[in-house]
Amino acid sequence: MFPTVRQVLALDPVRRGAPRLVAGEAGLDRPVRWVHVAEVPDIATLLGGGELVLTTGIGLPADDAGLRAFIADLAGVGVSGLVVELGRRYLTGVPKVMAAAAGRHGLPLVELRRATPFVRITEAVHALIVDAQLTELRATEEIHQRFTELSVEGAEPDEVIRQAAELSGCPVVLENLSRQVLAYDPARENAALLLDGWEQHSRRIRPAGRTAYDPDSGWLVTMVGARGEDWGRLLLRWPGGVDLSPGGADPRGPGDDESGKADAVSGLAVPPTRLTILVERAASTLALGRLIRRDAEGWERQIHRTLLTALLDRTRPVDEVALRARALGLTLDRRHLVGVVVRHRGEDPADNGPAADPGGDPGLAGVEPGAARLRDLAETVGQALREAKLTGLTSAVDDQAVGVLLALADAAGEERALTAFAAALRRTRPDSRPPDPASRRPGNLIIAAGSGVSSLREAGRSLIEARQVAEAARRDRRDLPIFRLPHVGLAGLLHLLRDEPRLQTFVERELGALLAYDARHPREQLLGTLRAYLEQGRNKSAAASAAHLSRPAFYERLARIGRILDVDLDSVDACLSLHVALLALDAIRTP
């Protein structure tokens, strides 16, 4: 938000002094934080960096060594430039030794060949700085207002990202911990170019800190998460040196370069403060939106959903959940509890044919097809529970699935109760059966059950297990009446956990160094070497043949992988961990 030395030299009060640049042209784009008038040689001790120093030279040292030391001291504290008015101490020009010293230090040195009131210069520059600060403040206020509105409205991630790109004028990307893009807005740039090779590019963006700028890549990055658990990163690419406030204009003059603004002391390009505020507010809005769950169902259904969510997320004491359930006429304590999840195989209504006709229910008017289908499924599940004469909590647990917590008298009746529920559901929803009994196509509905538990404190585990099994079963072509955990293999288990931040963190911990190495050396791709070694049961000869490498070359690559990952590839435990991480990486990268 500060003007540069170049911009200051273009101001009318300075131009009236007939300025001439003597040395330090490379530093003309340094920001000017303040203007300071000085006539003493030891002024550097009173400066903090970023000042443009004005002087007539009457108090400067007379000897060459003193002038060199004066320039070195100014450069050492990070002043933006030195302006010397001729006519009092120096008549025709500044001493050559001063110009040479300024050139060596890259410090802009300017002569004013006509007498100029310094007060006019300071007034003009300080007015420019104050105006820029006011513009920055207004932009910051708009950022806070805009993202507060988005938080209140429960805006979707795509809308939050769009608003961030609009306010900044910069491309914005939201990614998960595995560097997969969740949402983006290219801000009028080419989206294909922006996202091309994103994972490798993102792995090279490694700023220091939770919110920081990576000058090598030009990306401003902040972590996204809530309740102490991060689940993604928000990145904004800042081009540097351009006024990015809403409706703002480029503060540079015609012909200026795009080297960007710089830190007053270090001279490194840094984004404006408002962009840091913007990405942090956007990240907070995204984290809050992930926690918000809106439901258009009736009050009783909302209570069911609140209680199921509390058991899944452990947001309420178990005793409170039991108390509120009893208030609904449902006893959960001292019962055998089983978590059940029912969902469609496809994500989109078109995958399973048209949604059930709501029958003109005015409560469904204006509801999105997916929401109407989910509500219809929830009602069907409730009806099946009543038909099977079972009791339990039931509600949608996410955008695609309905959860049930069955409350049974004892564990002996678990299988009988699940069978009765599945049969009632399939009678109620004919589309849940295969279209032709002889067809190999499975039904459209998946019923998954978790392990039975004897305590309400463990009910969340049974529900989570059922949801995970249901997700994994979507890719199982068998038409089983009820899916249980033994039906899901390791690859399926990892696939259903692919969006879990802890799994992504595990993959990054185990393979992150190797993935980063491959991103820097795309021709080597050591990950493929490691995959061949593990898939061949650690048989080096067979793995070398599978990788189409000579054994010496393959052994050298294995040794390099061991050094990069700091692991012993002859260790069974280490290789097992790496193999699981590879399977998890494949699950994360597979839609």
TrEMBL record:
Region described as Disordered: spans on this chain: 245-265, 345-365
Domain CdaR GGDEF-like as annotated: residue spans: 319-471
Domain PucR C-terminal helix-turn-helix: 526-584
Domain Purine catabolism PurC-like span(s) in chain numbering: 7-129
Stated family: Belongs to the CdaR family.
UniProt protein name: PucR family transcriptional regulator ligand-binding domain-containing protein
